[in-house]
Amino acid sequence: MDKIWIVWLALMVGCLILESVSLQLFSVWFAIGAFAALISYLFRAPEVAQIAIFIVVSGVALAATRPLVKKLLLKKVEPTNADRSIGKEGVVLEEINNTGGAGQVKLEGVVWTARSVSGEVIPAGALVKAEAIQGVKLMVSRVEQTAESGENPSPQAISKE
User: Fold this and answer.
1) In the chain, how many domains are there?
2) Residue 92 near residue 155, CB atoms below 8 Å
3) In the predicted model, what is the mean pLDDT of the chain?
4) Domain check: are 86 and 146 in the same one?
5) Which of 40, 77, 114, 138 keeps 20 to 30 A from 90, CA to CA?
6) Which of 29, 19, 35, 34 is nearest to 62 (CA)?
């Protein structure tokens, strides 16, 4: 198999293309191994040695660098002041209608553009719970009123606070 260099070159290029598409930092080590095997071919190493070099170099590159690369790529999420709003309750100032792209909620004195997590239309004056923040929108779910909690305050009463 005198044309084994084609296999190494194709494997290296294929792994690099796969890596560029997936961005998971997995196949790049096999591309490095294929490159090492291609270099060993140029130095007239036997095919068995080329295969061994491919396996060893790929394994060593994977074992030595993957933990370091994963650690560097892990993005720590920095909590913001807005994150403290998750789980809190607020009042709908403007009807929340995901389809119409409308809705505002007042939560802890701050007016948010809001969307319903379930997709339901939530009328003005309803009590809602902040579930998440997506971009600059507060994702909310409606809170069912109990007899002891009384009526929902009106949006006008909330806006005067």
Assistant:
1) 2
2) yes
3) 84
4) yes
5) 77
6) 29
